[in-house]
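WARN retry 2 of 3 for item q-0093 after timeout on previous attempt; input resubmitted unchanged.
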Amino acid sequence: MRYREKLSFSIEMEEAISDFITVKIIVQPLVENAIYHGIKPSRVNGHITIKAWQEEDSVYITVADNGVGMDRECLEALQKRLADMDSEEHFGMVNTLRRLKSAYGDKAEMKVESSLSTGTTVTIRIPVERGKSYVPGACS
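OK item q-0093 returned
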């Protein structure tokens, strides 16, 4: 790992969702964004936390970092790009959201929260789909 001395991470996942089926490669681009845009420009040792849990009929996945964060203007611009599915910037996030929307329609959501010097948290919400034999591009 390239940022070994500057980066630590933790993963917390509820056992109950270990058999959940979802679209491939939805966490990786979010972790890459956290490293490149949050941790790399930061002067402190970075930490990324990945969490996954179920609430009622939805599974939530968060990727949070303690990096540089974004000011309100940058956060609003990112949220607009996600809402418009505009991929000129933040291609990884927009592409991830497109794939989620393709698989789950309006049941899939992505929310970004951030503040300067505190970090950024990206939360994905997708419907529970246990036992499906095939979801396009899925891995279990």
